[in-house]
Amino acid sequence: MSNPFREKLNKGQVCAGVLTSMPSTNMAQMLSNSGFDWLFIDMEHGAIDIASCYNMITATSGSSCSPVVRVMEPSIAFTKPVLDSGAMGVIFPMITSKQTAEAAVAAVRYPPAGERGWGPFYAPMRWQKKDSIEYYKSSDDIVIISLIEHIDAINNIEEITKVKGIDVFFIAPMDLAASMGYVGDRDHPEVKEAIARAEACIKKSHGSLGGLCLSASEGNDKIQNGYQVLLMGFDLLLMEVGVRSMLDGLNR
Fold first, then answer.
1. Partners of 209 in the β-ladder
2. How many independent structural domains does the chain possess?
3. pTM here?
4. Residue 150 known to be catalytic
5. Residue 203: inside a domain, yes or no?
6. In the predicted model, what is the mean pLDDT of residues 128-157?
7. Domain at 89, CATH number
8. Other beta carbons less than 10 A from residue 156's beta carbon
9. Per-residue pLDDT for 1 more than 70?
C-alpha cells in the first residue's frame, strides 16, 4: 500500500500528526522525518498556495509520513490541485450537515463515486506508482477527514456520521467553543458536553475518532477514550516552545 496513513488506520493503529501553516519546504521535510504519521498542511489558515503545497507534499517523500491537506471547502476547485500534487488525505473544515459531508466525499473520489476530474500527472510520483492508471487504482486509499467544529455539526452528528466515504471524524474544540460563544475556552462545561455527544456518536460509526491534544499525556487520555487520530500541535507552537526553552534561565 502506498499511503501509510491509510494502512495504519486499517490496522487500528493510533496515528499522530502535526500541523504546518508555514509555506516552507524545509519545515515540511523536517516535520515529516520527525516521527509523525501524518503531516497536516494547512491551506485554510496561513500563506500556503498551491505551488508551496506541491513542494511541501514532495518534501515528505522518502518518509513514512503521509501529507494531508486542509482545503477551504468541499469543492473540486480546491481538492483537484492538491490531490493531483500527491496529497494522501484531505481535511474539510466546517462539515455541519449530511449534505456538506457528501460534498466532501464527492470532491475527492473519481466518478462514478465522485466528481474529481482526470489529471493525476504528478501524484503517481509521490505515491510511487508507475503511471496514472496505477495511481487511479489506489486512489480510494486517499483519507478523507471531516472536521466537527461547529455546534450545528454536533446537532447533526448522527446524519453526518452515516455518510460513507469519510474515514475520520475529527473534533476541533476551538472553533466548536467559538460557535457556542465560548471563544478560547475548550474546557467550558457546555463545550465538553457537546464534545462528549460527538464522541459517543462517532464511536458507533464506521469512521475513526480524531482530536486535538497538546501533550503526550493528553494524547494518552484520548487514546484511552477511543481516539485513533491525534493532532499533536503545530509548527509555530513547536518553535515557540523550543525558543523559550533555549532562553529560559539565560543570564543576560
1. 169
2. 1
3. 0.96
4. no
5. no
6. 97
7. 3.20.20.60
8. 19
9. no
- Assign 3-class secondary structure to the chain: CCCHHHHHHHCCCCEEEEEECCCCHHHHHHHHCCCCCEEEEECCCCCCCHHHHHHHHHHCCCCCCEEEEECCCCCHHHHHHHHHCCCCEEEECCCCCHHHHHHHHHCCCCCCCCCCCCCCCCHHHHCCCCCHHHHHHHHHHCEEEEEECCHHHHHCHHHHCCCCCCCEEEECHHHHHHHCCCCCCCCCHHHHHHHHHHHHHHHCCCCEEEEECCCHHHHHHHHHCCCCEEEEEEHHHHHHHHHHHHHCCCCC
Q: Which domain holds residue 123?
A: 4-141+212-242
| Residue 64, domain member (yes or no) | yes
| pLDDT at residue number 29 | 98
Is position 61 within any domain?
yes
Give the position of cell 519545515.
27
Phi, psi torsion values for 196, nearest 5 degrees: -60, -40
Residue 75 clears pLDDT 90, i.e. is over it: yes
Of 45, 150, 188, 206, catalytic: 45
